[in-house]
């Protein structure tokens, strides 16, 4: 059988080692070869990191697009929640679509209760005052200015992403953003927190940061006004 040809890179490396052995000794050659090898490993590791980052960015974009289409459609019907806010909420509350609620029930926003008789049981994190008694089945996640607890609850199960977005808009219109055609995502985020949409004290701030970081306001340009 014919032996495989040595790659040009390996030939150059070993030629360099041989030259250094002749003129500098084995110890120096070993150090040089080790350095070259380490550089190759670092380059390979960096390439893998960059590829992983590119893949993660691609998945984030795909998730944003998945939420954006129904968000624009629902806005055009109800004129309640801006697409940028809908997507930011979806990102924050489903961890870019990685939550079990999203995977098993299309429940992007963690809406409790039932939807057309369908529901799923799941644990949810909430913030309460430190003197709030902890009931049976409740887990204390973290102590602090406010106590973070994890409690079992019933959540709505949706047949599709569109149904989840539409129902989210209806619920939001009834309880949190009662005024239609609010065209500022910052104002909408603050209204959600002020009216008790979430117990996280940084909820509005986090939504606004997500919208700015990922330029989600571009989807607001697609709506009818």
UniProtKB/TrEMBL annotation:
GO terms for molecular function: amidase activity. Keywords: Coiled coil, Hydrolase. InterPro entries: Glycosyl_Hydrolase_73, MGlyc_endo_b_GlcNAc-like_dom. SMART domains: LYZ2 (SM00047). Residues 51-220 form the Mannosyl-glycoprotein endo-beta-N-acetylglucosamidase-like domain. Residues 42-69 form a coiled coil. PANTHER family: PEPTIDOGLYCAN HYDROLASE FLGJ. Belongs to the glycosyl hydrolase 73 family. This is Mannosyl-glycoprotein endo-beta-N-acetylglucosamidase-like domain-containing protein. It comes from Apilactobacillus kunkeei.
């Amino acid at each position: 059988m014919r032996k495989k040809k040595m790659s040009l890179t390996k030939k150059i490396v070993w030629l360099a080692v041989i030259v250094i052995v002749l003129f500098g000794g084995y110890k120096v050659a070993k150090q040089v070869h080790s350095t070259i090898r380490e550089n190759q490993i670092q380059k390979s590791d960096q390439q893998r990191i960059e590829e992983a980052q590119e893949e993660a960015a691609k998945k984030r974009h795909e998730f944003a697009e998945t939420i954006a289409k129904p968000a624009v459609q629902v806005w055009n019907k109800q004129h309640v929640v801006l697409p940028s806010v809908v997507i930011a909420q979806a990102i924050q509350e489903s961890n870019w679509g990685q939550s079990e609620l999203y995977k098993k029930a299309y429940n992007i926003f963690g809406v409790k209760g039932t939807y057309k008789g369908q529901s799923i049981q799941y644990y949810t994190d909430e913030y309460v005052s430190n003197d709030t008694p902890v009931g049976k089945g409740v887990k204390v996640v973290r102590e602090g200015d406010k106590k973070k607890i994890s409690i079992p609850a019933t959540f709505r199960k949706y047949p599709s992403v569109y149904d989840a977005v539409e129902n989210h808009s209806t619920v939001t219109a009834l309880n949190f953003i009662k005024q239609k055609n609010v065209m500022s995502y910052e104002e909408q985020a603050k209204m959600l927190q002020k009216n008790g949409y979430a117990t996280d004290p940084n909820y509005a701030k986090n939504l606004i940061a997500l919208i700015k970081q990922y330029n989600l306001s571009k989807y607001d340009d697609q709506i009818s006004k």
